[in-house]
Design a protein that fits this description.
474 residues, alpha+beta, five-stranded mixed beta sheet, three-stranded antiparallel beta sheet, 15 helices, globular
Length: 474
């Protein structure tokens, strides 16, 4: 309803909005209680792992294996990967044990989950003797406003309560520097690095200066008569430089990628006076599954960067055409998705090639680590008579390989490379060899007359029907 340009509500709309608001409040309170219940359960799991290790002489290893095992048990319930669950166990223990007031305030719905994270993140730099004071003040501040608005205020409060100088704390914070990847949609990812502020801005400034130099060269090339040479000599023709349409942000990203993938670092501990060290010779290695029709150019469906996310068909075909050593090429059947051919520059043993093509990733349920970064494991231990054959081998990452060996988790391999995992509580999880997502074209199987004696009705080397592909439990 409109009255003098003001949007109003009818009585029915007001009643409906009031009901929706009431439901929202109920849902908010129920969600707060549910989050607290999950937090408490996760924290209990962490304490159980600690208790298991308390009676062992090898406490560090026993605690780690127990924690991995419990995290994997919880992962099946939460439908998450066990590494994430293990991190959440640590976060839950921190919140419940080190910030009890914050935990209770969140459970009661006094502050939000984002407020809780803000308090624990900012409070993590404080020593235990002042943490309770910070928590009390922080909760009162958070009750008044949104997390985005109170963040700066909480940081100031923490700085005033901290007994150490900023310089001392910076030296400690430097230890947290790291690089991580966050996968986005449409075949894109964020590469994030945490560095000391002066170095981060120096990197950005250098990239910016280099990008501006390229942009200036582009401007000069566009103003240069065609008869004149490019300022880059014979490396890049003038018309190519002039046709560059990239933005400054895009040039920065391209420069960063180029230097990281091709340059040798100056700080190379393997370098000697006789020449360069070995770090510059190390090359990136990824595993990409490309449907055969995509590789041939008759289909533009995405390829699979194993363990990560899809990549576009053009990039996949460019990799297939140009790369040699870093990329292991796997071709899959357009209908069933099964591996048809493995082609790699460095030819490993045929069995290893088959296993990489079949498994593609770690074979513990929920784990996405690519097979090229995993270990080949005997499902039935070789030391106990297990055969070295495709029906008794599978890829496991170091984490889950160790967990299989040192925790109560059990595994056996069924036909077709299917792994049956049994948790310490007796819950069974099935992990099947992954098949890439493909669009199935119209398929007309050839007549049985064209088949060999040993071939199924679907044709030479092909199954009669696509295999049953039930989803994995998590």
């Amino acid at each position: 309803m409109h009255n003098d340009g003001v949007v109003g509500l009818t009585d029915a709309q007001s009643a409906a909005l009031a009901e929706a608001s009431h439901l929202l409040r109920q849902g908010r309170d129920a969600a707060a209680q549910a989050r607290a219940m999950v937090t408490r359960a996760l924290a209990m799991g962490g304490r159980i792992a600690e208790d298991i290790a308390s009676t062992s002489d090898s406490r560090v290893r026993e605690h780690d294996m127990a924690l991995r095992s419990i995290a994997a048990e919880f992962a099946g319930i939460l439908m998450m990967d066990d590494r994430t669950v293990q991190r959440r166990i640590g976060d839950a223990r921190e919140l419940e044990e080190m910030y009890p007031q914050t935990f209770e305030a969140g459970r009661a719905g006094v502050i939000s989950e984002r407020h809780q994270r803000l308090i624990t993140e900012i409070g993590s730099s404080l020593p235990p003797e002042v943490r309770a004071d910070f928590e009390t003040i922080a909760i009162e501040v958070c009750r008044q406003d949104t997390p985005g608005r109170v963040k700066a205020q909480l940081e100031i409060i923490a700085a005033r309560l901290h007994p150490r100088t900023f310089t001392e704390r910076h030296q400690e914070a430097r230890e947290s520097r790291n690089v991580r990847v966050v996968d986005l949609s449409e075949g894109m990812s964020d590469l994030i690095t945490t560095l000391p502020t002066v170095l981060a801005h120096a990197v950005y400034d250098r990239l910016t200066a280099q990008a501006r130099s390229i942009r200036d060269a582009r401007t000069h090339a566009r103003q240069t008569p065609a008869v004149e040479r490019s300022p880059f000599g014979q490396l890049i023709p003038t018309e190519v430089v002039a046709g560059d349409e990239r933005t400054l942000d895009q040039i920065r990203a391209d420069l960063l990628t180029d230097m990281l993938l091709t340059a040798a670092p100056c700080a190379d501990p393997t370098r000697t006076d006789d020449g360069p060290g070995t770090l510059g010779a190390i090359r990136a290695r990824v595993q990409v599954v490309v449907p055969a029709l995509t590789a041939l150019g008759t289909d533009d469906g995405p390829a699979d960067l194993v363990g990560q996310s899809p990549i576009d068909a053009e990039t996949a075909r460019a990799l297939l055409a140009s790369t040699t050593h870093p990329l292991e090429r796997l071709l899959t059947h357009p209908v069933t998705g099964s591996v048809v051919e493995v082609d790699t520059y460095e030819r490993p043993a045929a069995l290893d090639r088959y296993l990489r093509g079949r498994d593609q990733r770690c074979r513990f349920p929920g784990c996405r680590l690519p097979a090229v970064r995993c270990e080949v494991d005997h499902t039935h231990d070789r030391a106990r008579g297990g055969a070295t054959c495709r029906g008794n081998l599978g890829h496991l990452c170091q984490r889950h390989h160790s967990m299989k060996q040192f925790s109560p988790w059990q595994v056996r391999q069924l036909d077709g490379g299917v792994l049956e995992w049994t948790s310490p509580l007796g819950v069974v999880y099935i992990d099947r060899p992954p098949l890439p997502v493909t669009f199935v074209p119209e398929w007309e199987p050839p007549s049985a007359a064209g088949c060999g004696d040993d071939d199924p009705p679907g044709g030479p080397g092909l199954p009669a029907d696509p295999p049953d592909r039930e989803g994995v439990p998590f």
